[in-house]
Amino acid sequence: MSYSVTAPSNRTKWFAGFLVIGYALITIMPLLWIIATGFKSPSDAIAYPPKVLFEPTMEGYVNLFTTRTRVSDETMAALGEPTTWYEQIVRDQNMVIAGPSRYGERFMNSVIIGFGSTILCMVLGTAAAYAFSRFRIPLKDDLLFFILSTRMMPPIAVAIPIFLMFRNLGLNDTHLGMILLYTAVNLSLSVWLLKGFIDEIPIEYEEAALIDGYTRFQAFYKVVLPQAATGIASTAIFCLIFAWNEYAFAVLLTSGTAQTAPPFIPTIIGVGGKDWPAVAAGATIFLVPVMVFTILLRKHLLRGITFGAVRK
Amino acid sequence: MTKSPIDAVARATPDPIARRIRGLSDRTIAWIFVAPSIFLLLAVNIFPLIWTIRLSFTNFRVNRPNNDVEWVGLQNYERILNDGDIWNSMQATAHFLLWTIALQVLIGFALAFLINKKFRGNDLWTTIIVLPMMLSPAVVGNFWTFLYQPQIGLFNYVIGFLTGADPSSFSMIGDVNLAPWAIVIADTWMWTPFVMLICLAGLRSIPDSIYEAAECDRASKWRQFWTITIPMVLPFLMLAILFRGIENFKMFDLVVQLTGGGPGSITELTSINLKREAFEKWRTGYSSAYAVILFVTVFGLASIYVKALNKVKER
Q: What is the DSSP string of B98-136?
């Protein structure tokens, strides 16, 4: 190894590592606590002092996905033995399963709206980014700034007229309405990011393709798109995560059929107080996919969260 | 772009052949590609904004659609600027903004500085630190209310353990003096990694040769830090502050789930206050004027800031 006067000494590295790992362990605690609480029984979840070691149970998850009712002892006895493990867990609480909860629906709404808006956003965003990158467009810089500036508006500020507009168009509380809305919200991000990615593809490739007789369209989807695939994929994941996490519009514009998980999870309540294990279970199922995506995305993270302002 | 060889060939060729080679003209393609995006943004962003501005001069109320809508001129704006509640929420927002940015810059920069020492496994730990930032603020904020519970909450327990205070003796969310700090702590936990990542990019952009030259000139480490590291990272840091500033001025999801603006209205940030006016009291005209004022404030502050940022970059 070459000697460098600027490389930190081993002792510095140890010290830096010690502090950073210390911070990481503290910062990850709330997340681990969410995951752990999901596997606790309600009494363990609210025990004092907080329990680090506990007997894991699926009660939180079962409570998350079901609604339950209390029945009299005679009815209970008449029911016979429970046939499934989740019925057993509910019986142990002296209750029977009354039906599925709303969580599954809400989660599916998040999936439909998240993926729907991401796909639409990528189609529109890639086309616009390509045009901004390759063609001379009048007022290009102004248009790009306009696209960026749509991000500065507080969601609540535009929510009033969007609420009115959606009501007139019958889009309130529909999947389509939310997909269009999230597409518009994410469009600024995707245009800026994708323009950066496409700018990096040498224009000579397309010129070669054009000389070989491709039309502009062919050059676009046969030459540029494959080259930009990584960029498009990472942009898509960012759009998906933003749509997935969005709360303000969701809570104001949806209440029933199209409600996504973020406004729903905080409303989960149990019998006599908040059912924290069920809330934690719902949060875990909702958050873990994002954690996995974040780990996959780590190389593009900076670019994504800064609208391509910082490339690394 | 227009000087590409194919353009020259195309221009030299008679028209019908040129069309065959090029398909649609570039200008047409450009508009086909850009128009849908611009149209959607106009429909979902600009049109509502104009509508908001129009509503802000009226006394319209969504929950009373049959009432006559009257044009009230600047009356809404006048009332807002004289409304004590709104000034209180502006103050709450200022407190929140100031402290979250200060803490996030300090901790974020320190972490980036340490990670840049390239100890073994720094990639893994960086990724772990980044996780909170990517999660849904509403869901996480809701869970923080559990961590903040007196007695049973993990946060209270740890603080009690470290300071010897009784974990049931204080309530981060219920106490008027503590609630503003409860939201600052949760936001700092969530967004410090953002500042850290940008600082890290700044630190990594500094070429080693500058430090080597400084080392040859026998500049002390302390001196190197203040005359090389800080000035070189400053544009990045300012960018991070811009992003955090805009985001936290709009802050809604995390705080509304954490404290809901309470206790009383001590943590009622402007977005929460606005939501209350618009969707609970249904004072549509009034809250539209409020929204316009907020938007102008963000936009104005951001523009001034970007000018300053560009000056720093030029140096």
A: HHHHHHHHHHHHHHHHHHTT--TTHHHHHHHHHGGGGS-
A158 to chain B, closest Cα gap in Å: 6
Residue B211 has a CB neighbour count (10 Å cut-off) of 19
Asked if B236 has any chain A CB less than 8 Å from its own CB, the reply is yes
Is the pTM of the predicted complex or chain greater than 0.90? no
- Note which residues in 80-99 of chain B have CB less than 8 A from chain A: none
Chain A contact set for B121 (CB, 8 A): 17
Q: In chain A, whose CA is at the least distance from the CA of B22?
A: A215
- Chain A and chain B share a number of CB contacts under 8 A equal to 318
- pLDDT (tens, 9 = 90+) of chain A, 312 residues, equals 445 667 788 888 899 999 999 999 999 999 999 999 999 988 888 888 888 888 898 989 998 998 888 888 888 888 878 888 888 888 888 888 888 888 999 999 999 999 999 999 999 999 999 999 988 888 888 888 888 887 777 888 788 889 888 988 998 899 999 999 999 999 988 998 999 999 999 999 988 998 888 888 888 888 999 999 989 999 999 999 999 999 999 998 888 889 999 999 998 887 777 889 999 999 999 999 999 999 888 888 888 888 877 776
A155:B252 CB<8 A: yes
SS (H, E, C) chain B: CCCCHHHHHHHHCCHHHHHHHHCCCHHHHHHHHHHHHHHHHHHHHHHHHHHHHHHCCECCCCCCCCCCCCECCCHHHHHHHCCHHHHHHHHHHHHHHHHHHHHHHHHHHHHHHHHCCCCCCHHHHHHHHHHHHHCCHHHHHHHHHHHCCCCCCHHHHHHHHHHCCCCCCCCCCCCCCCHHHHHHHHHHHHHHHHHHHHHHHHHHCCCHHHHHHHHHCCCCHHHHHHHHHHHHHHHHHHHHHHHHHHHHHCCCHHHHHHCCCCCCCCCCCHHHHHHHHHHCCCCHHHHHHHHHHHHHHHHHHHHHHHHHHHHHHHC
ipTM: 0.88
Interchain contact B201–A (C-beta under 8 A) = yes
- Smallest Cβ–Cβ distance between A287 and the set B49, B135, B299 belongs to B135
Given CB atoms, is B304 within the 8 Å cutoff of chain A?
no
Distance from CA of B156 to the nearest CA of A (A): 10
Q: Shortest CB distance from B44 goes to which of A37, A180, A266?
A: A180
- Of the candidates A246, A221, A7, the one whose C-alpha atom is nearest the C-alpha of residue A109 is A246
Amino acid in the structure at residue A33: W
- B135 within 8 A of A290, measured Cβ to Cβ: yes
- Inspect the interface and report whether the beta carbons of B115 and A16 lie closer than 8 Å: yes
Q: What are phi and psi of B123, to 5 degrees?
A: -60, -50
The CA distance from A127 to A175, in Å, is: 24
Q: Which of A49, A53, A264, A268 is nearest to B149 (CA)?
A: A49
Residues forming beta bridges with residue A100, ordered by sequence position: A66
Give the minimum alpha-carbon distance from B141 to chain A in angstroms, rounded to a whole number: 9
> CB distance B30–A286 less than 8 Å?
no
Do B117 and A12 lie within an 8 Å CB cutoff?
A: yes
Q: Do B252 and A248 touch (CB under 8 A)?
A: yes
Question: How many Cα atoms are found within 13 Å in the side-chain-facing hemisphere of B307?
Answer: 5
DSSP state of A267: G
Nearest to A157 among B6, B117, B294 (CB): B294
